[in-house]
Amino acid sequence: MAKAKIERSQKLFLKAMKEKFAEDPSATSTVFARAGLEQSPRKMEFLKAGKQVELARGISQYDPKRCHLGGIPLGQRQLMTYEVSGTGVFVEGDDLHFVNNAAMQQMWDDIRRTIIVNMDLAHNTLQKRLGKEVTPETINEYLHILNHAMPGAAVVQEHMVETHPALVDDCYVKVFTGDSELADAIEPQFLINVDKLFPQKQAAALKAAVGKSLWQAVHIPTTVSRTCDGGTTSRWSAMQIGMSFIAAYRMCAGEAAVADLSFAAKHAGVIQMADILPARRARGPNEPGGIKFGHFADMVQADRKYPSDPAKAALEVVGAGTMLFDQIWLGSYMSGGVGFTQYATAAYTDNILDEYTYYGMDYIKDKFKVDWKNPNEKDKKKPSQDIVNELATEVTLYGMEQYEQFPTAMESHFGGSQRAGVLAAASGLTCSIATGNSNAGLNGWYLSMLMHKDGWSRLGFFGYDLQDQCGSANSLSIRSDEGCIGELRGPNYPNYAMNVGHQGEYAAIVGAAHYGRGDAWSLSPLIKITFADPSLKFDFSEPRREFAKGAIREFMPAGERSLIIPAR
Amino acid sequence: MAYKPQYGPGQSKVAENRRKFMNPDHKLEKLRDVTDEDLVLIMGHRAPGSRYPSAHPPLAEQQEPACPIRKLVTPTEGAKHGDRVRYIQFADSMYNAPCQPYLRSYLEAYRFRGIDPGTLSGRQIIECRERDLEKYAKDLINTELFDPALTGIRGATVHGHSLRLDENGMMFDMLQRCVLDKKAGVVKYVKNQIGEPLDREVKVGKPLDTKWLKEHTGMYHSLVGSAFRDDAEYVEYVQRIHSLRTKYGFMPVE
C-alpha cells in the first residue's frame, strides 16, 4: 500500500489506547464482556445517588437497569475512560458533561459575565463638560469605589440592600492601556499588565493597538449572569460604573452629564463578548451564539502561554470551543439532551486530533519549510488551491489510515461525526498555520470532509453533512450572505447554526492562522488582553487542563451558595 | 447526446464495486434466500400473512385531481394500494462490509423508485411504501450487498459499525439481535430490527469469508482492504470537485 508521506513513529494517542483497552491497539477483534454499568465507578455512583434521590423525594429517578432499552443497560461494550488531550489525566466520559464539570461551567460563566468598557469617553465628559480633574490618583480612587460597587454594594444612596461579599467574590474590575506611563501609575491590583503577561513582541503590538486609551475589563458576579443572562452583563456593569463615577468625582446624581456617562457605559464605549442574535434565535448579547470566531480565538490564551507552539494553541481553542459551542450552545441552548457531549469530547480527548495536527506540522515543515515552531509571517505559503488541496488531502488520508491501522482509535471515535470533525480540524489547522489565512483553513476543512465521505462512503449524520457539502462553495466567497472572512464568522453564520462538531474547530482554524503568524491577536486586542487576566476563575491559557481538573473534581468555581442555604 | 451515468471515478476494485452496485444494468449476485415471511419477521412492521395496513384508500378509489405530474409518474404498487410508509435500516461494519451508507443511498436511488433514503455514519435507512419496501429489502438482503456477520438490520440502537469485531467475527450489537450459531455456522436473527424477540429464529446464512469481503466491499480501508490513498484517480477526482466548487460554486465551468 502507499504510505503516509511523513513517518511519525511516536503516535500521540497510543498511550491513551493502551490505558483504555487491554488489547493491542492494532487488533481488529475483541471480546465484548457485556459487563454493564458495573465496569464504571461513575455509573455506580449515579446508581447510588439516584436511589437516594428517589428515597428523599418519593419520585423515581435514575434507574438504568429498568429504563434503558427495556432492561439492557449501558456497558454492553467497554465503557471507556478518556484522556483529556495534552494533560495526561484520564477521566470518565460522564465527567465531561458540563453539568458534571464545574470548570466547564465556569469557562462559560467567565465569558458571559465579562464586558469591556472604554473610559476615555467618560473622562472626556468629566474633564470637558464638568471641568473635573482626572488624574491617575482619581482613576485609582474610582477603581477602588468600582470594585466595591460592582459586586453589588451601595456607594451613593442611603438604606440600600447589598450583596454578600462572599457570594460575589469573583466580581471585580481591572483596567488596561497601551500607555506605559499611565499603566505605571495604576495600582497593580487594578491593572492587567500587558508587558508582564505577553511575550515582548505581542505586548508591543497590543499596546500599540490600544494606544493611550484606557479600558475597563469588567466581570460581574457569576451568580448574577447565571440568574439573569448575558444581556444583563452590560446593564449591571453600567449601573455600577455610573454610581461609582458619581461617588468618585462627587457628581450630582441627577445631573444631565450622568446620562453621558451612562450612555458611554451602556452603549458607546461597550465591547460585548457576543453579538445579539436575530429574533428566531432570540438571545441577547453575551450569549454563545453571538461570539465571533475571531473573538473566541482571542479569549483563549494558549498562544500567549505557548507562543512557539501554534498547534497546541489551536488545539486548546478546539477544546474550549467544542465545549462551549457544541456542549453548551448547540447541545443545550439550541437542542437539549445530553448527546452532544459525546461528539464534542472526541476533539479534545485521547490526543487523536493532536496526533493528526502534529502530523500536519511535520508535513508543512518537511515539504514547505514552514518553521511552525517559530511563528512568523515571513515563511507562510501563498494560500493557493493547490496548497490547500495538498495539505488537506495528506492530513485527512493520514488520519483515516491511523483510524484504520489502530482499530481502538476508531472504536474511541465510534461515531462518524466525531471522526469527521477531527480529520477536518487537523486539515484546517494545518492549512491555516501553513498559510496564515483562516479562509484557506476553512477551505481545507471542506476538502477533508469530501475526501472522508468518498473514502469511507460515510461521514456524519444527515444534517451534519449538509454544511460540509456546501462548504467548498462558501469558504472563499466573500459575497454577502454567502461568505465572510473566518474571523467574522460565528456560530450563527448561515449553515453553521445547527450542527455539532464544527464551530469550536472553526474558531481554532481562525485562531491558527494568527498563531502561525505570531500575531498578538486574531480579531480584537481588547478581548485578547482582557482574558489574559490571571485573576479570572478559569484559566483561559489552559482550557483542557481546566476541564480535566473539573472532571476529577479539583476545580473550584465561583457562584458559591452554601452561605445562604441550610448546611448539609 | 444522451446522458450516460458514470457512477463514479476510481481505478481500484473498491471503485469498481461501487460502480457495479449503483449500475441498475448490473444484476446483483444472489447469495442467499431469505423468504418473504422471514423478511417480514425481521423488519417487524406487520405479522406475516396479515393485510397491509393502509394510510389512505387505493389511488384508483380516490378522486385524484387533474395533474400532469400524476400522469407522468406511474405510482409504485405500494402507492397504488395506499400502503403505509415503513422502513428498513442497516448498520454496515467498517471492516469490509459489502455496502456502506452513502453507497446504499446512491444505489437505491438508481435501482428503486418511490424511496426516501437517509444517510448517516453508522446506519442508513430507506423508507417507502410497505409492499415496495418488502420487495426492495429482498434485494438488499439476499444479494452481494449483504453479509450476515458485518451487515446489521437495526431500527434502533445501531452502535457497532466502527467497533472491533467480536471473537466470532461478528459486528457488535448491543441488543444481540442476531447471533452466530457456531454449530451450524450460520447467523440467525432472534430479535427483529428494533430488538423485540422473535417467535422463531430467522436464519440469514453463513458469514462470507474475509477474502470474498475484501474483493466485494465498497469501502476503502488500509488495514483490511485497499487504501484510499492508492486510488490516485479517485483522490484527484475529489480534489477536482472541491476546487471547482470553491471557484465556481455549484455551477462549475472551466
Q: How large is the count of helical segments of chain B?
A: 8
Overall, the morphology of chain A is globular
Largest Cβ-defined interface: A-B, 55 and 51 residues
Number of DSSP helical runs of chain A: 25
Characterize the main sheet of chain B.
4 strands, antiparallel
Shape of chain B: flat
What are the low-pLDDT stretches of chain A, counting only 5+ consecutive residues below 50?
none
- The helicity of chain B comes to 25-40%
Strand content of chain A: under 5%
- What average pLDDT do the residues of chain A reach? 95
H-E string of chain B: HHHHEHEEHEEEEHH
User: Rg of chain A from C-alpha positions?
Assistant: 25 Å
Low-confidence stretches of chain B at least 5 residues in length (pLDDT < 50)? none
Sheet with the most strands: spatial strand order of chain B: 2-3-1-4
Strand content of chain B: 15-25%
Q: Averaged pLDDT of chain B, please? A: 96
- Major β-sheet of chain A, in short? 4 strands, antiparallel
- Helix-and-strand structural type of chain B: alpha+beta
Question: What does it look like?
Answer:
The complex is a heterodimer of chains A (568) and B (254). By secondary structure, chain A is mostly helical. Chain A is built from 25 helices and six strands. In chain A, strand 1 and strand 2 form a beta hairpin. Chain A is globular and about 80 Å long. The model of chain A has no long low-confidence stretch (mean pLDDT 95). By secondary structure, chain B is an alpha+beta fold. Chain B is built from eight helices and seven strands. Chain B has a four-stranded antiparallel β-sheet. In chain B, strand 5 and strand 6 form a beta hairpin. The longest helix of chain B is centred in the C-terminal third of the chain and has 17 residues. Chain B is flat. The chains are: A mainly alpha (568), B alpha+beta (254). At the A-B interface, helix 18, helix 19, helix 20, helix 21 and helix 22 of A face helix 5 and helix 8 of B.
